[in-house]
Please model this.
Amino acid sequence: MKKLLFFDIDGTLYDNVNDNIPESTVEALELLKANPNVEIAIATGRSSFILNKVEAIMHYFDAFVFLNGLHIVYKGEDVFAYYPDKQDISKLINSFKESNLIHGCFNKDYEYISKITKAIELDFASVNLDLPLVTEICDVPNVMQLYFFGKKEELDFIQTQNPQFRIVPWHTNGADVLPLEISKDAGIKLLAKKLGYDMENVMAFGDAPNDLEMIVSAGVGVAMGNATDQVKESANYVTSNVDKDGLYKALKHFKLI
Model:
């Protein structure tokens, strides 16, 4: 039976620490593309315009779940685009401001942030991302996703103040903010249905908290060796780190290449 494979980008396809795509990963994608029993897709927290670090492998993919499921694209056409309620967004931004938390957002074309500090510069540098434009976030049109920086207790406080959203922590000191019905998991299910796959024939590869739900719901969930403990515990299989040929080894293990 043909399989649909979803790959996270950061920490899975792309090695953030060494700022490269492992050669073994490129080889694996080349072999997958030649396998008629496999279709491959990306499921990422990144937006469609923040792919410069992985541009060299984008031609292998036709299907994309961007922004943790808020924006889905297949063969260059939008399959799904979700815009949260404007009043809910305003309330959330007010929560950030009242707690004096640096926050940012994406719309379909740009990323913005409320303020840049040395700590923010280091956070973006740690995942090799360019700094966003600084602006008043409440003035940004057509917001799709918000995020903010804070400690665990601040993340928890924002969650209690905004139950209509779900706070999804990063590896570092911040979190994405998603509508309750939106996730990578919901995104891969929507795209799998569109492409004619049952979830038992879907595989998901990831490492971070925002990968957890898709790792669990896929027929086979694969955690990278550099994944969080929770992701590893929830996966069907744990492979090596991204910089230790983890993706290639996992695909070999499942006889997909």
